[in-house]
Amino acid sequence: MTAATSTPVAWPLDRPLALSVSVMLEAWSDDSAPGIGPMGNPLKAGVLDLQGRSWADYGPKVGTWRILDALAAADVKAVFYVSGILAERYPDLMKAIVAAGHDIAAHAWAQNIVPAYQTEAEERADLLRCISTIEATSGRRPAGWISPRCTPSAVTSALLAEQGFAWHSDIFDTDVPYKLETPRGSVVGVPFTMEVNDMPLYIRYGNEPRAFTQILGRLLSQWPDAPKRPCCLDITVHAHVFGRPYGIIELIESLRLARRYEALARLTTHAELAALCA
After folding, report:
1. Cβ atoms of residues 147 and 156 within 8 Å
2. What is the pLDDT of residues 137-172, one digit of tens each?
3. What residue spans of 165-209 are helical by DSSP H?
4. Residue 208, exposed/middle/buried by CB under 10 A (0-12, 13-18, 19+)?
5. pLDDT digits over 22-56, tens only?
6. What is the rounded distance in angstroms from the CA atom of residue 144 to the CA atom of residue 104?
7. How far is CA 225 from the centre of its chain?
8. What is the pLDDT of residue 5?
């Protein structure tokens, strides 16, 4: 697999900072639960964490609807990265996301199924059922992908190219999108940044929710002093984390910040960024 990392020709150099809004809409298979959550004491190995399951189920039941309201109020479009199993369970939610004008991308079949642990045959089978389920429930074939834990296998890029995906975001080695050439075709790698992401900031590291907005605010306010090189920056929320009242407040304020600094940074999506490399 080869990659070219030069800045896309179509990149608008007058506003080199690209802000993408991404919503992670995740679910686990029936025999699994999130491995990280709000409780500090993990259960014994082999015990199904029903608290963790209930906590995660908030995302499709409540959190996503609140996020859709916030995005509509701010007139901002996002990419929703959706577990295939969640699309199967909540078809009406898939239709609502598309009706609101957002893109739906694939986030594997379930969050406990990591491509790096699978054989190629297993990975292809899960990829195909993820594609078919999202297309059946949303009416659109997914064009983008993020693996659970953002951890692909050695053949993930090739499998995505084989199935005609436009982009995937298991990419951390660059500031701008680039085309990945594989033995089965090409796919665009869109970098995924973690600086403004509720999962590490709030759940893993225990920051107050406002750290999300404070970090974004500092990045944007100090951007004029930084070297003017093209760069991507993600504003990422998980529906079961910042879809709750304490988190939606920070998402709303972050979208306001993004609008305030539009002269310096443009609001876009992973789908639009990938198209720059088409």
Report:
1. yes
2. 999 999 999 999 999 999 999 999 999 999 999 999
3. 198
4. exposed
5. 999 999 999 999 988 888 788 898 899 999 999 99
6. 8
7. 28
8. 59
